[in-house]
Design a protein that fits this description.
heterodimer; A: 329 residues; mainly alpha; two-stranded antiparallel ribbon; globular; B: mainly alpha; ABC transporter involved in vitamin B12 uptake, BtuC
């Protein structure tokens, strides 16, 4: 076991979350309640799945900004396929189609990055506009509010449902289980398989990874397919929960997601990042997006708050590293 | 000669630009070559071209500036609020000059802040400018409540819509900026240091270069350029808003890369950026005349970006 380190990002983020909740509870005693918790969990589902994917890419030393376009594409294309070809398809099939579409789009990123060696930021900026442009030009621009029955069934399927003492309803959809399953599966891949260790190794030092016999290209290709598949799944879950499939949704979230992952301690330079940190980062971003008003900051200041969090969250470790380096030399 | 053109990034780009222009001129000759279309193109591209210039300069050091659009809008919003507050009778030329100075100093401050974060605190440029981009946009939202600031004095219109000796003012501004930045990068110590730092930061430091100063100057320049772009957008829209030009960020990065600037730093020429801007604008206007939707245009931009990266890759590999 690693010893407990106060300077770890996870600890810092956790402390900020606790501080936020204490402040919020002092100002509004109703804040500390089950509905707040279920709201937080519900809003973390899509963001959380995105963040897990983004974290895996960051750990490998790359960056992916196209996943929101992949998600929107998979979500909308699947809804159109279901509506036009197989309206009675059960939801697991719809989810499988969306995941597959996501994986195929991710494979395009994978080929460009792993086999042509192009810079990840530029490739994914390019594919972001290609996927989005293709979707809106050739698939459609009209939102579909009359979702196929399979997806509607899924959205009604609640894990927890109840009434608060003041009569307000709260609920947590089963979609949350998808996030849990993905987190567990990703944890297993990253920490218990050779593939996962290869991802960390590539992010740490690509040349060393290659010399100890790791298939760098194959691993990179897997990463982008995996992220695409996760994005596809997140997309279809988003549409099911929102009960509407809007091709303009999701794109624009990518920087918030990356911010959450970076807050959780993943490094842009690769090799460093944990799932615990990522989930804490997501929780903090969701709290700021939803509940800033509770601690007395108007919601127009939301993006300033997220920006400051990113700078502080990444600035402190970077500054400490710089000082340590200066002391050594 | 032909071999030399084909083997330089800028040479290939010049051919691409010519090809796009010729193709559009053949496909829609009467409208593409009309003076109305040519003039409207000259008014359209300078605002994002200046942002591309800023991104290109940051990229030369191996960094990137994702806060350009945020800094541009923040500068414009501050200038617009200032003019709104003091607006009186008359055309307001003096007021406009004061507002321009104010906007440029806001841009400069925004850039200096980025520079300090990158140089003194050692933040990765992507994260530092991602964070400050959110902060600048957020401040603009907080100041305006998210709505557009209108009611500018009449003099403002000249910056974005006027002409100087028959040449659109935005184009004049862009030409001057491109020339000055191009000259500074090529012939001054600052330019040499910028390129050296981009090529190899460690070697630059061992050569006793004050790398922190260079980085701060680079980002300060980016911020100031962004503010100028923000003023042009404000004048053309006759208003300022926190979320104007949000699609310009991707476009500016795309143009810089298309223009042959190496995203890892060290190589890039302003002439390349200018050619990339022109080819994008020809493509954009031509497609518009051909009634292609905005979404298809976005897709074509993305394909162009990846295609150019692949072409550059193949030609780099051929070199010994």
């Amino acid at each position: 076991m690693k010893s407990f380190d106060w300077k770890r990002n996870e600890v810092l983020v956790f402390a900020v979350i606790v501080g936020f909740c204490v402040l919020a509870t002092l100002r509004d005693p109703n804040f500390l309640s089950i509905p707040t918790l279920t709201d937080l969990m519900r809003n973390s589902i899509v963001l959380g799945i995105f963040a897990v994917g983004a974290m895996v890419v960051l750990v490998s030393g790359g960056i992916d900004v196209s996943f929101t376009a992949v998600a929107a594409f998979a979500m909308y294309a699947t809804t159109v396929i279901l509506r036009d070809l197989a309206p009675d398809m059960p939801w697991p099939m719809a989810f499988a189609i969306a995941t597959l579409i996501g994986a195929v789009l991710g494979a395009i990123n994978g080929v460009l990055i792993a086999f042509f060696g192009l810079p990840t930021l530029i490739v994914t900026l390019g594919t972001l506009s290609v996927f989005r442009g293709f979707l809106l030009t050739f698939v459609g621009t009209l939102q579909i509010s009359n979702l196929p029955p399979g997806m509607r069934d899924f959205s009604r399927w609640m894990m927890v449902r109840g009434t608060n003492s003041d009569g307000s309803f709260y609920s947590l959809p089963w979609a949350f289980a998808a996030l849990v399953i993905i987190v567990v599966a990703t944890w297993f891949i990253l920490n218990r398989t050779m593939l996962g260790r290869a991802i960390y190794a590539i992010g740490g030092a690509p040349e060393s990874a290659r010399r100890i016999g790791i298939d760098v290209r194959g691993t990179q290709f897997f990463i982008y397919v995996f992220v695409g598949a996760l994005a596809g799944l997140a997309g279809i879950i988003h549409a099911s929960m929102a009960r509407i499939s809007n091709p303009f949704d999701l794109v624009g979230l990518e920087l918030s997601v990356i911010a959450a992952v970076v807050l959780g301690g993943a490094r842009l330079t690769g090799g460093v990042g944990t799932l615990t940190g990522t989930l804490l980062g997501v929780a903090l971003i969701v709290l700021v997006r939803n509940s800033l008003i509770v601690i007395g900051i108007p919601s127009t200041w939301q993006s300033v708050a997220i920006g400051v969090l990113i700078l502080v969250g990444t600035g402190l470790p970077a500054w400490q590293a710089k000082r340590a380096e200066a002391q050594q030399t | 000669m032909i071999n030399r053109i084909l083997h330089s990034t800028e040479g290939r780009l010049a051919i691409i630009t010519l090809a796009v222009f010729t193709t559009m001129a053949i496909l829609v000759p009467d409208r593409f070559l009309s003076s109305a279309n040519l003039t409207s193109m000259a008014f359209q591209f300078p605002e994002f071209a200046i942002l591309a210039l800023a991104v290109a300069v940051a990229m030369l050091t191996g960094g990137i500036d994702l806060s350009v659009v945020g800094a541009a809008n923040l500068s414009a919003v501050v200038a617009a609020l200032f003019m709104n507050h003091f607006a009186g009778e008359g055309t307001g030329t003096g007021l406009l000059l004061a507002a321009i100075v104010l906007a440029l100093s806001v841009g400069l401050m925004a850039g200096l802040f980025n520079g300090v974060l990158v140089a003194n605190f050692g933040l990765p440029p992507i994260l530092a400018t991602l964070g400050t981009g959110l902060i600048y946009t957020g401040l603009a939202i907080a100041m305006t409540g998210g709505s557009a600031v209108m009611g500018m004095p009449p003099a403002v219109a000249w910056v974005g819509n006027g002409t100087l000796l028959g040449i659109p003012v935005p184009l004049v501004i862009f030409a001057i900026l491109a020339a000055v930045v191009g000259w500074a990068l090529k012939y001054t110590a600052f330019g040499l240091k910028t390129r050296m730092f981009g090529a190899n930061p460690l070697a630059a430091r061992y050569a006793a270069m004050d790398t922190e100063r260079v980085l701060i100057k680079v980002y300060a320049l980016c911020g100031t350029l962004s503010a100028i772009a923000g003023l042009i957008v404000m004048s053309r829209a006759n208003s300022a808003k926190a979320d104007y030009g949000s699609s310009y960020l991707l476009l500016a990065v795309l143009i810089a890369v298309l223009g042959g600037v190496n995203p890892y730093g060290g190589y890039g020429r302003i002439i390349g950026v200018v050619l990339a801007v022109l080819s994008m604008q020809f493509l954009s206007s031509g497609l518009n005349l051909l009634q292609v939707t905005n979404f298809a245009r976005e897709m074509i931009w993305g394909i162009l970006l990846i295609a150019v990266m692949l072409i550059n890759l193949v030609s780099f590999r051929r070199k010994p």
